[in-house]
Amino acid sequence: MRLTRRSMLGATALSAVTVTALAACSQDTGEGGGSGGNGGSDGGGGGDDQIASDQNDINAKERDELGEGGVLRLANNAFPANWNTFHSDGNERNTTDMMGAIYPSLYQYSAAGEVTPNPHYAKRIELTSEDPQVMEIELTEGMTWSDGTPIDYKSIENVFNIMNGSQEEYAIASSSGYDKVEKIEQGDNDLTAVITFKEKYADWIGLAAVMPDSLAESAEAFNNSWQAEPLVTAGPYKIGKIDAANKTVLLEQDENWWGDKGLLSQVLFTTIEDPAATATSFQNGQLDVIQTTVPATYSVVEPLIDNGAVLRRAAGPNWTHITLNATEGRPLADQAVRQAIFRAIDREEVFLSVNSTMPYPENTEPLNNHLLMTNQEGYQDNAGDLGKHDPEAAKKLLEDAGYTMEGDVYSKDGKPIEITYVYNDGSKTNEAVVPVVQEALAAVGITMKVQKVPPTDLFSKYVIPGEFDLTLFGWVGNPFLSSGDSIWKTDGEQNFGKVPAPEADPLLDQAAVETDPAKRLELMNEADAHLWEAAGVIPLWQSYDFYVQHPDLANYGAWGFESPDWTKIGYVAGSDKLNG
């Protein structure tokens, strides 16, 4: 879906980008079992060149090359807090990955980042006027939600009326783009919506979506009715069983689906919060895929690569970062302290603490841009001095702001700088990073405490309410450059650290409506320079996805910008997995 998705850097979730346009989700290209990706990998240890932004590896096959049947067993690292992906608690990668098989997406992406209508759901999505900008969405005929109600104009209208941010009682994930719409009207039939914009919006197609009436009927329904389960679906698969106690979700083929039927008999998602347990489950043949982003899991499954499993890799719009909380009254409300933390942390050391034995390209450099990835058109290094490790410069920033060293800790008005790093229990990424950051901050007179919390609670009870000072997770990107504006704008719904960036705000607004690609990238880089000065998010590295999976699994893996098509995911004809 269009909304920026976060990931939690734990058992199966990686870290990923927030706003991107020309990068790719990551995994590794490998041969074996009919693997047909573009690119290659030797299976570990690094040494490859950087992967191109339009390169992916999913063992791409046509439907007639695949068999029917089999079970696909997947893992995630947090059970959904809310199945409503339009909601701030539901806009999380574990949830959106599952919903992709059972909920409509009106558009699809190619590996090169091209966005087109998804023919399963949308007949057309097009601009019919440039001035004023007018978009028309025409839905495919005969679609219904699983409760029998039609998917029609009203389903589109629900999205635009709720997501524009005008109703504060709805806890929406992001209003970006929707807040630029002047009106939505029914077109020539009950399947067509005509959307007129107040001003041009470059990523207009990314606003196209549908929402059932029952979810939109009230704030109570929107916020709470899907906490336990999605009450309606519409996809090639449907909910078979949700076992909240054991944290499993079983999907089955939906007999009422109007498109190409799903090839798999079942898809089983199991929440495994401990990364080591996830790796062991794959090693023992209990999972068919593991997304492995840290040595603790990769070292376990690496011996299986080319020995019953294949590694798939790509470099995409996904990145890892540390978010700082600038909420008034907290210690990091002071910009000087935030900037000192930027100078204190050695980002290369942080990267190596997690990835020294992972198959990244040699000489992988820190990410020096919040809005564009290293292999993306327009990327430039805007970090300046704030991206450079310099403990003495960090101390000077604090002293110039009126802090004095008392013992081993800087204080101001008798109050020492003490901050809390909050992360999801079981995250091997965080477990590697915490001591590095803690030691770096201690070296510049800042005390850092550590608080581990249940993975399911991280966002809903800590990050979103602002109960943290530092936290590390990832952003998962998509082809829409403005889709992450709500992360960066001062009043953005996903600006969890409440970091003010008044100089960046108007530049992001201009970039969102700029249709000239070169000018748009120029505006984004200018905005990014201000984001570095605001010192609210420390970009660490562009995160590759490394997937180790069964070699017979097709159309699944390192998609890059390509969106998964659950009508094509399955096992190659003749595979033993078809009997499982």
Provide a brief overview of the structure.
The chain has helices at 93-99, 153-163, 213-216, 219-224, 275-283, 295-301, 335-344, 347-355, 391-400, 428-442, 457-463, 485-488, 504-513, 517-534; strands at 5-7, 71-76, 107-109, 115-117, 122-130, 133-139, 181-186, 192-197, 237-243, 248-253, 266-271, 289-291, 310-324, 404-406, 409-412, 415-416, 418-424, 447-453, 470-476, 537-549, 553-554, 570-571.
C-alpha geometry = globular
| Contiguous uncertain segments of 5+ residues | 10-47
* Mean pLDDT, all residues: 89
Number of strands: 22
Class based on secondary structure composition and strand pairing? alpha+beta
Work out the radius of gyration. Answer: 23 Å
Helical residue percent? 10-25%
User: Helical segment tally?
Assistant: 14
Query: How big a fraction of the residues is strand?
Result: 15-25%
Distance between the termini: 31 Å
Largest sheet: 7 strands, mixed
Can you walk through the features of this model?
The protein is of the alpha+beta class and 580 residues long. It is globular and about 70 Å long. It has helices spanning 93-99, 153-163, 213-216, 219-224, 275-283, 295-301, 335-344, 347-355, 391-400, 428-442, 457-463, 485-488, 504-513, 517-534; strands at residues 5-7, 71-76, 107-109, 115-117, 122-130, 133-139, 181-186, 192-197, 237-243, 248-253, 266-271, 289-291, 310-324, 404-406, 409-412, 415-416, 418-424, 447-453, 470-476, 537-549, 553-554, 570-571. Strands 1, 12, 13, 17, 18, 19 and 20 form a 7-stranded mixed sheet that branches. A 4-stranded mixed sheet has the order 2-11-10-9, with no helix packed on it. It contains 14 helices and 22 strands. The chain starts with a strand and ends in a 9-residue tail after the last strand. The relative contact order is 0.23. The chain is 22% helix and 22% strand. Helix 5 packs parallel to helix 6 (295-301) and helix 8 (347-355) packs antiparallel against helix 10 (428-442).
